[in-house]
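Bug #77: duplicate submission created two jobs. Keeping one. Sequence:
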Amino acid sequence: MTQLIAEELILLIYGTDGTARRKGMRLDLAIGGALLLQLVQDGHLELVDKKIEATGKPDRPAHPELAAALAIAEVKPRSPGALLTKLTRKTRRRLLDGLVASRVLATQPRAPFGKRYPLADPAPRDRALRRLRVAVIDGGQPDQRTATLISMIQAAGLASRIFPDDDQKAVKARLAQLAEADPESEPVRKAIQAAIMSQIVGIVIQVVIMVVSSSGD
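Kept job's structure:
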């Protein structure tokens, strides 16, 4: 079975050392966005009056994670941001387990607790990375699947994990250019960026409160 775009994101991020390395929150949002956009591309969802709603297409997605995401979206029309919140709950863990079951990833204990997910079969990640490099580094034109992958990487700020040895300024500029050329992804990209900013602001506020409280002791 062909990997989901969301699974390709996981392989690209985890493939270097088997961890998300402090990119977990951003990756979760990108995974949710990738599921959402894949359902749009497959004709199951559409954007109507700034809300995502089901099209009523009779056939169901073959992949259980896409089918589960569609079931959530079918409940009622939601904004991209509200739907993203629903689609990020424990999704990464289920996709990781699926990639282990299909022997694309392996598992290793990670001290002091948790797991590492190193590559068992590098071929799927290598294929995704080749497509990305053709578009981002070599200046090629991406297909729709690769364009969606690029849009999610750009929106979630994951470029440094995927292109660590390339000129980061040039990579980010090219990613932004390609993402802007993919209008279908724009509402989801904006929702991801807003969610990231909201969480960053929340963390900053918590730090400020802690500093102020400790200085008053």
